[in-house]
Amino acid sequence: MSLSPRHEEHGAIPAHPYRDSAIFYGALAGAIVVLSAISSTGLAKGLAVGGAFWVAATAWSWWRFRVRIKRREKAEAAAAETGGTTERTSDGR
């Protein structure tokens, strides 16, 4: 995943973007909790950091997916009005 908006245009949106991102970041948050529990950091701090990470990362990805879905719907509506297509050329434009 890239933070650059221009890279987002080239990737396909998954069938279940919100669910998939919540599960993915949940697994990463779980890894944070496990690593902190087995290290000297402690379980309580790991739960706090893992929970904060999950909330922030999931909110960010949901917001970006929402923007991408709205942008795609707007482009499809504009194409329907003009009778054009929203498909890209082979060079990505």
In words, what does this structure look like?
- By secondary structure, this protein is mainly alpha-helical.
- It has a domain at 17-81.
- 71% of the residues lie in helices and 0% in strands.
- It has three helices and no strands.
- The protein has helices spanning 5-8, 17-38, 43-82.
- Helix 2 runs antiparallel to helix 3 (43-82).
- The longest helix is centred in the C-terminal third of the chain and has 40 residues, at 43-82.
Provide mean pLDDT, rounded: 85
Helices and strands, in N-to-C order? Answer: HHH
**How far do the termini sit from each other?**
20 Å
Shape: rod-shaped
Instruction: State the helical fraction.
Output: over 70%
Total strands: 0
Beta percentage is under 5%
Low-pLDDT sequence parts: none
Q: How does the major sheet shape up?
A: none
Report Rg. Answer: 18 Å
Number of helices: 3
Based on secondary structure, the structural category is mainly alpha
Keywords:
3 helices; mainly alpha; rod-shaped; 93 residues; single chain
Write the layout of secondary structure elements.
Blueprint: H1 5-8, H2 17-38, H3 43-82
Helix pairs in contact: 2-3
In short:
By secondary structure, the chain is mainly α. 71% of the residues lie in helices and 0% in strands.
